[in-house]
């Protein structure tokens, strides 16, 4: 077992992008500041995409402008083409992420074109990021199954990863966008990508749709994946996938890792507090469990 | 990975024992029949304990009298002393289970005496079961943590298991009664008990209180545990532990195992149907996720 894993806090972007309740720029900034106070050091803060497609992210520049700087925190912005990258760079993101979708049907709905065609946008972003010396990551959506096509062959995921890596990338995330993976799928698919791209940094993105999200995170960590995405409270979803549910909850993930003596830098009580505050913003209970059950063992009572 | 694991369906007993809504004998019998129709072949059907302590199990004899026979299904009854065993035997259970609790404080609340003192009841049950040639199992509650004492040392769990095994037992279950375990705890504790009692059949009982239940089930299966408890819909709780939540849901567990090509004999669609019916009986949504998310890949559409 590793002594630590890195967590990417995705609640401000993947968590909120599908949220029907309007969330103000100030509230987003407070969420990010609460995540930082809880120990998050890599945060997916927003996306620089068409605001007509994803209205919750229309204030990307305003969010970035309000964030604290020189604090060791990396702010990840999503960009889907050269224009998005230019916006992200001007706004001051410190990392850029691009999403490819492994299956053509879902790629068409999410990215507006079949998978391989969307490599053109990545080529633009990758080239611009290299010029700007900005770290990059690729997320391969539907890496474990597609809501429209069903099973996605392992070879397809490997092919997409290799084609993406041809343009240079610092990290590749396999995303279980619709929450269908089992731990065996996780072990198999990360091993296949790792074998095809030796030395590439791997990251896992799980949704807890069929109750396997935390099991998949455990399997990923045991398989050597060093970076995990999660969201405070387990909020989230996908506007372009039916019945999508939230990311794995940061506090539940960190609880498990703490019990396994795997460090994350995240403070559980602060994470629970941030998730509880978020419930008030969104106006409903979030799916995370630790806040309701309580940390174990409980903090020592002061007599 | 094993090619199959055995599931013990515990919804009729551990699932319902803490239920505030009255559930009739007829409804319990229907639940058991639905579990059988879904493929369950070992079912914890009731307990033969003081009805003043656990009112939901007051109709133990009536439930047993109404069950189908000669169908290859094993009906497990809980008995906590010789008198309970005699009732179970007369009612026609085919297996008897006894619960020990690893921590003294919780044992006092659950069993009315500190752990080691409650071995006397087990000695009675074990002796009577041997005479009756009835298979036995021990469940060690709070094997991963106690709601009153906090951490429970691994050595304590091993000691309790060994003391229980001195009386002869066919199977030992380690129970995470309050849902605090991590997969690392699961691996460590089952290995320790297995090392102390080589060849004993091991069984895992998890509650999904802090979102680690399915991850723990995966870890148990990978560690060679061949029997897992679960409940349809994930219903359940414990009347003597604060903030206890349900067992791991049968359908979510089976979904994961199916995706890993590990057989259980359980039919997912039938299990989802039974859990949905159970929501109507109890009058609220159950915590299982598969029924809401849907089986993946979806059954082929008929054009």
From TrEMBL, chains A, B:
Q: Which residues cross the membrane?
A: none
InterPro entries for this protein: Aldolase_TIM, HMGL, PYR_CT
Supply the PROSITE patterns for this chain. Answer: PYR_CT (PS50991)
Q: Which CDD domains does the record cross-reference, listed alphabetically?
A: DRE_TIM_HMGL
Q: What is this protein called?
A: Hydroxymethylglutaryl-CoA lyase
Question: SUPFAM superfamilies from the entry?
Answer: Aldolase
Organism superkingdom: Bacteria
Gene Ontology MF terms in the entry:
hydroxymethylglutaryl-CoA lyase activity; metal ion binding
